[in-house]
Specification:
The longest helix has 22 residues, at about 165-190. The model is unreliable at about 90-105 (pLDDT under 50). Helix 3 packs across helix 4 (about 75-90), helix 5 (about 100-110) runs antiparallel to helix 6 and helix 6 packs across helix 9 (about 165-190). This protein has helices at about 5-20, 25-45, 50-65, 75-90, 100-110, 120-135, 140-150, 155-165, 165-190. The two termini are about 35 Å apart. The protein folds into two domains: about 5-90, RNA polymerase sigma factor, region 2, helix turn helix motif (Rna Polymerase Sigma Factor, Chain: A); about 100-195, Winged helix-like DNA-binding domain superfamily/Winged helix DNA-binding domain (Arc Repressor Mutant, subunit A), CATH 1.10.10. The protein is mainly alpha-helical. It contains nine helices and no strands.
């Protein structure tokens, strides 16, 4: 079960309990939302400190504005929009600051299995650095769609709903993002193209 699916299930249980005034239910929901909101904010801002600030602000807003969630959309869709709006209000430019992919690559390179070859670790670090550079070079909408669809594994229909765009538009952004990333990777390592039929 993905984090988003798990959060959606938790919200389905907790939101009615919060509305009934059940003690502790709001704190449980805020606790469940924290990690997911932080990850979304990290994609939006590209900076861990900014993402933490956004997450804190979103949780404060959630505490005071949960009554605005009418249940007409999925809870995670509504929460994503709140997070996205708060990220935008910081005035940060995503283009030069996205570090999500590089952070995942650095984590993998920093904690290899005992038998890992140092050359493999160096290669992983180079791949992570290239991925970060290529992601920073994408237009903001492509970066956002790619992050939600390919890094978080959200279905494309949900990505479109969260971003307020038609599914076909989300599909086009994802296509262009994947094509640009593939071209960038093949420009650096053309040998990867051998045998792929393209």
């Amino acid at each position: 079960m993905s984090d988003t699916t798990s959060l959606e299930a938790a919200a389905g249980d907790l939101v009615p309990r919060i509305r009934r005034g059940e003690a502790g239910a709001l704190e449980q929901l805020l606790h469940r939302c924290r990690g997911t909101v932080y990850q979304w904010a990290l994609v939006q801002t590209g900076d861990a400190a900014d993402a933490d600030d956004v997450a804190q602000e979103v949780l404060i807003r959630l505490h005071g504005s949960l009554h605005r969630y009418a249940g007409r959309s999925r809870f995670t869709t509504w929460l994503y929009r709140v997070t996205r709006n708060e990220s935008a209000s910081l005035g940060r430019r995503l283009r030069s600051r996205l570090r999500l992919a590089a952070a995942a690559g650095r984590e993998a390179a920093a904690s290899p299995t005992p038998a890992a070859d140092p050359a493999d670790r160096l290669h992983a670090a180079r791949v992570a650095a290239l991925a970060e550079q290529l992601l920073r070079g994408l237009p903001a909408r492509q970066r956002e769609v790619f992050s939600l669809a390919d890094l978080e594994g959200c279905p494309l229909a949900e990505v479109a709903e969260r971003l307020g765009m038609a599914p076909v538009t989300a599909r086009v952004h994802l296509f262009h993002a994947r094509r640009a990333l593939r071209a960038g990777i093949l420009a650096r390592w053309p040998e990867l193209a051998q045998g792929d039929g393209r």
